[in-house]
Amino acid sequence: MSAIVAENIVAGMGVLTAAVMGWRMIASRRAATMSVARGDSVRAVPPSADVLSRMIETLDLVPAAVLVLDAGGRILHAGPGAWELFGDSLGAIMRHPAPLSAVLELRDGERVEVDMMLDVPIRRAVRGQFRRISIGAGQSVVLATLQDGSERDALERMRTDFVAYASHELRTPLAALTGFIETLRGPAADDPQAQQRFLGVMAGQAARMQRLLDRLLMLSRVQMIEHRKPRGTVSPAAIVSRVRDEAAPLLDGGPATLNVDLPAGLPDFAGDADQVVQVLLNLIENAIKYGSDERDRAVTIGLRVRQTVPAALMGVVGAGKIQGAAPGGGVRQGIAFTVTDNGPGIEARHLPRLTERFYRVEGNSPRRTGTGLGLAIVKHIIDRHEGRLTVDSTVGKGTAFTVWFPFGDGVSPKRHETVMDTSFPQPADPG
């Protein structure tokens, strides 16, 4: 992949150079013609907008992320490759202090290369190459090519994090397995009852390690594509249908029941259907594990779907709330999925840390044996969709997790007649 990108950059710079030379010749010929026609030695006026527009038409053929900037760093034109790769992040890239200061210090004919790291709305590693050229008397532009190194950066972080997290979290189950193996080889070698008991515990520890590795790999995959904006559209009804089917094994024969509130005619929204389903399954799984208290009563889980705006989510008054690190406020509409339970609730001091990796809210329920990665995965998926996450919890009554996904470009909520709902569902009363 990096080789292909490098070839595109090289090819792009070649076309840029050719285009610049060609349009410099055009500008000089126009200047000479105008000077002869006027019969004096006065230099020609700066090239018209037509000259710049023709150059831009040529640059749009370059198979790379190409920008044309003015001498102050303002974007005059972004090629198709730049929009495809970076979209609305182009403005944030050029407002970054590193490329902005480099562009301002460039002189005609000079070239500079800048590496930058963007953290908002998501982490992105970008390398920019900038060259200032003169296109006429007293007029110059800066040609820029951008290269996205986010996947390479994510891969490096994934390797480091995986080793750190796996070595820390796998130490406990591995120590337990080692101890039981030594016991089975020694004191319990001739004790069938002890062997069966220990083998059961060992199987549980092995399953715990398998779940941990599966979640770590899932988290890594989500981070790898977090900077890519989803291209598909998602039907709320189809999502709910898949969630019901895939959650059935978690609910069958257990203490939890799932109640769905899905109005008819909700519009589609922009997103990755598989990831949206994963978010809801993670929340439902958490509700099953953490939704009961020490009395181990039956868990009632609600899944409510509404069309709403993020302002409605942020106006909640409750024990506490957290917000996803994605933009998208104002009156932008979208679809909100709310998963509620009638469990013991979560104390307010825990809410700001719920999406941290391996953070767990300890309790007395025997089912509270999660990996601590489920909500971290949820957060990264929501960030990729430019969505929001809010949590409202009341101790002794229950918890409500709401994930909001905005309507994307080309997805209009006007295709369906849906009443706007701005209320926030409160946790179910345990009764």
Low-confidence stretches: 1-47, 315-330, 410-431
Anisotropy-based shape: elongated
CATH architecture of the domain at 229-320 and 332-363 and 371-410: 2-Layer Sandwich
What's the β-strand tally?
12
Helices and strands: which structural class?
A: alpha+beta
Fourth CATH level, the homologous superfamily of the domain at 229-320 and 332-363 and 371-410: Histidine kinase-like ATPase, C-terminal domain
The gyration radius over C-alpha positions equals 29 Å
The percent range for helix content is: 40-55%
Q: How many angstroms does the end-to-end distance come to?
A: 57 Å
GO molecular function, one term: protein kinase activator activity
EC number: 2.7.13.3
Pfam families: HATPase_c, HisKA
Catalytic activity: ATP + protein L-histidine = ADP + protein N-phospho-L-histidine
Could you characterize the architecture of this molecule?
The longest helix has 37 residues, at 2-38. A hairpin with a 5-residue loop joins β3 and β4. This protein is α+β, with helices and mostly antiparallel strands and 431 residues long. Among the domains are: 49-148, Beta-Lactamase; 229-320 and 332-363 and 371-410, Histidine kinase-like ATPase, C-terminal domain (Heat Shock Protein 90, 2-Layer Sandwich), CATH 3.30.565.10. The strands form 3 sheets. It has a 5-stranded antiparallel β-sheet with strand order 2-1-5-4-3, with helices on both faces. It contains 12 helices and 12 strands. The protein has helices at residues 2-38, 49-59, 80-86, 90-95, 97-105, 150-169, 171-185, 192-224, 236-251, 273-290, 310-314, 374-384, and strands at 65-70, 75-78, 111-118, 124-136, 139-148, 233-234, 256-261, 269-270, 299-308, 334-341, 388-394, 398-406. One of its GO terms (molecular function) is protein kinase activator activity.
